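WARN retry 2 of 3 for item q-0093 after timeout on previous attempt; input resubmitted unchanged.
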Amino acid sequence: MPRFSRIWNGRTWGIPSALVLTVTIVLRIVRDRLATLLWRGNLGSMGHGSSVQAGVTIRVPGNVHVGARTSIARGVEIGTEKGDSTCRIGSEVIIGVGVRLDFSGDLVIGDGVVISEHSTIFTHAHGLDPKSSSRKTPLEVEADVWIGCGVIIVEGASRIGRGSVVATGAVVTREVPAGCVVGGVPARIIKHNAKRCDGGDPVP
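OK item q-0093 returned
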């Protein structure tokens, strides 16, 4: 009974609560599968085994392409201010609860990337005038990157290098080399992986 113990304390008076939770879980699974089916028909493309949970918002869905075995959690927002921009999400990507992805300036997310809960990525800028027309600032997140919880990535970060890690709460304003760990506000390199980091600290 190890899995059922997550919702039941093993005592008789805990059965009603466990039954209600069971029904809630089943309904959530049904909603998630229905949402995946609907998005599969509405996105530009979606690979085999990928899932989009209920409660996800995607603007201009025809410009969004998702690879195989990718998971997009509830509360995710994927949007753009530009009708001609594209978002390409690779295979085996995990996008956590409440993540916001702006692909106004074109966004590419490589295979095996993990974007943890409540992180935000911007790919456009307004300079010092919030009412001005947005300027595209393309971003590529290369394969096997891990973006921690609550990270903000803004214009100027044109590339997050392969195998890099962005620590929880970091604000990334510049390019991140491959195989490095960055953290802080603004983000700086705090660790190099000699085998994977392509050298040079782009953040003074």
